[in-house]
Amino acid sequence: MRVGTDPADVSVDPATNTIYVANTYDHTSAxxxxxxxxxxxxxxxxxxxxCASQIAVQVPVGIDPISVAFDQVTETVYVxxxxxxxxxxxxxxxxxxxxxxxxxxxxxTITVGSAPSWTVVNLPLxxxxxxxxxxxxxxxxxx
Length: 143
Hints:
This protein is mainly beta. The strands form three sheets. The protein has a four-stranded antiparallel sheet, with no helix packed on it. The chain has one helix at 49-53, and strands at residues 7-13, 18-23, 33-39, 57-61, 65-71, 76-81, 86-91, 108-111, 116-122, 127-132, 137-142.
């Protein structure tokens, strides 16, 4: 499947069968990177032929997105943007394989600190953890 330039991480929403891919150096301008939104229903291990013809929707996010984490409870994708010290917050109810209207505008962001890298979601605790490499710390955020 074709996605953006230098894909760095991937996450899946199993409810909508949507694949989200962070494209690290896919700058559509000097100020943005992208997240590719791919329809997993037509591109998976049993439907390989659907991968080649698919054109992924591109969500504009921060500079150098390197990590993607999906929260199935809040239907949110969190994208860590290395160079602009933010976490992009994509609401998947309006940005998924079946509904792309919410993918066009840049999503909201949260400032998390210098050089954020990997993000994980702890569903039972409704908590998002973001590694902040420059300070040897982890940012802790509520859903």
